[in-house]
Amino acid sequence: MMEKQALDSTGEQCWLGEGQSEMQLSAVPDTVRGETAGEDRPAWDSKIQYVLAQVGFSVGLGNVWRFPYLCHQNGGGAFMLLYVFLLTVVGVPLFFMELAAGQSIRQGSIGVWKHISPKLVGIGYSSCLVCFYVALYYNVIIAWSLFYLGNSFQYPLPWEQCPTDVTSNETVKECASSSPTQYFWFRKALNITNSIEESGEFNPILTGCLLAAWAIVALAMIKGIKSSAKVMYFSSVFPYVVLFIFLIRGLMLDGAMDGITYMFYPRLEIWGSVQVWRQAATQVFFALGLGYGSVIAYSSYNPVSNNCHRDALLVSGINFMTSVLASLVVFVVLGFRAKNIALHCVAENVGELNLMMSHGSNQHWWPWFNTTDPTSVSISDYRQWYREYGAMVAPKITDCNLEEEMNKGVEGTGLAFIAFTEVMALFPASPFWSTLFFLMLLNLGLSTMFGTMQGILTPLMDNFSFLGRHRTLLTVCSCLLGFVIGILFTQRSGNYFVTMFDDYSATLPLVIVVVFETISVAWVYGTDRFLDDIEAMLKWRPPVVYKYLWKYVCLLAMLGLLAASLLRMVFKGPTYTAWNQTKGSEMTLEYPDWALVMIILLIVFASLPVPVGYIHTMLRHHWAPGAPPQEGPGAEVHRELYTKCSSTDQLDPNSHQPLVEEDGVRSRAVFLPVGNEHYQLLSQQGEEEEEEEQDTGV
């Protein structure tokens, strides 16, 4: 890696490749950035708005239903320590890198990477495409939350009891084989088919909920951050209020401490498992929203002097603490649910034992506890007896394992729409708690959805002046397109497509995007230059440890995650969990061939812009070697070169002086001074013939 070379008046070219400039991030004029002439870039009204937006985007449904599951399944407290380690050495540096790049260049993802090098413009387009994938299925989850929210205003809740078959006057067989909450989710909400190969008709109620979800997103974003930021005050804060309410209520429940114990009990041996490291790295990656371009987009609306390093530490810390808070809430509630199920199991088995004892002679395996009052028997006493004598009376008598119940339905939609709904039905005033819970899910989803859409709209408006002039039309058309394509997920087999998109459409492409982002900053532009640019913005230099984290640790970690994800996909094979209506239970199936082709196409299409952008730029310069690099959607622009002057030197009055707006705010086109240094325009005489060899660095 070559270090940054000083710029001098001789016009000597840097080491960087063709088409790159010698200006720092903050030196880029608005014309190069592609901003619409005559229009000021929107800005956050306050720092609180910005922090709430970043927190709202990064803290999503995954914090509530993915992190607790991984923590419990992979060593409890040991997994949490591993997560903190990877968050510190990989997550925070990459998050800081995206924040700094967006704030410096003041562009969306397309403009940022195009500015570093035109050959890298495909990174931004890949980010936009993946954001669109995620928005398609993420809004379906919001639609499900709306459906459950609407059904929460009933007493009793519609999923409290199994319905009765009107023809036979008996409990519906599918519900009796499963549970009321599972039956309501799979049959009433989704009306799901038995496999992805059975499409079935569209669900009109969910289609209406999806339309409502997209309408909410469109209305909240129709005026950009000016409208969405105001919604963030509620959508980002309200989930924390609900989580604390549930935590206080949950700690009062019987079994709450059992849930916390199962969650945090450390099993350090899991550190030797490659899959656990992969899952922890993936969770860090998605928790911070790396690669989407949303972090860059939000940061681009900041003033250049904003302390983005502090923001990176703050948002990452809040994200982790939210995951811990959500885990506490989830496991006190699941502990209560599991203990209720286990006690019910004990009561049923003790009742059966009591019946056996009343019809048989004295046996040595008869229990020592009081079988005449099944509710008085503790789980520990029953399990101790079962371990010693259970084999003699099986299969009539079964085990009642609290931990097994803790492991059921604690991941993804199973947690939110099955396990939690079951617990809500056990609470006094159950409609109130159910309404509160699904209102929380709705706000968590919306705040993340706003960030995801911002990752699509901001780069397009920054890079294409026509779209920038028609923000409202672009927002409405994008949401309308998302709704039309999203109807795919409202058919009876739609849940299987949601699973497919969630598992495969984003993971690999996003990791590829972040790999190229890291290479771009660390090895193409150069970490020393990047740190110089940050120093020019913040007036202090970040610790040098970031240089080595970006160049080696982060890059190797992302390459390892990419390799592990590819190997797992190849050797394990893509599978999905289907619902069998006849058996009333879930089963794991392999995707059919056409679905595998669809998965491959989703990954290829999202990753394709990276090589296509590189090849297109190479071919363009190959066939037109004399043409200067084109940095924006309009005419070709020659970049200006600047060099440092002594603070005592008088700048030429005809040179480019720093522009100051009427309110005293420094223009975006100004190259930020470092200390008392100034910059003057260099002569470009005789450099046209060398244009092909110039850099386009940040």
Any descriptors?
two-stranded antiparallel sheet, 698 residues, 2 domains, 6 strands, disordered N terminus, mainly alpha, symporter activity, symport, two-stranded antiparallel ribbon, disordered C terminus, 27 helices, SNS_sf, Amino acid/polyamine transporter I
Largest sheet: 2 strands, antiparallel
In the CATH hierarchy, the architecture of the largest domain is Up-down Bundle
Tally of structural domains: 2
Strand segment tally: 6
Low-confidence stretches: 1-39, 630-698
How far is it from the N-terminal to the C-terminal residue, by CA? Answer: 17 Å
Mean pLDDT metric: 79
Overall shape: it is globular
Given this structure, which CATH class of the largest domain is correct? Mainly Alpha
Instruction: Tell me the CATH topology of the largest domain.
Output: Amino acid/polyamine transporter I
Keywords: Membrane, Metal-binding, Sodium, Symport, Transmembrane, Transmembrane helix, Transport
Subcellular location: Membrane
Organism: Nothobranchius furzeri (Turquoise killifish)
Membrane topology: Multi-pass membrane protein
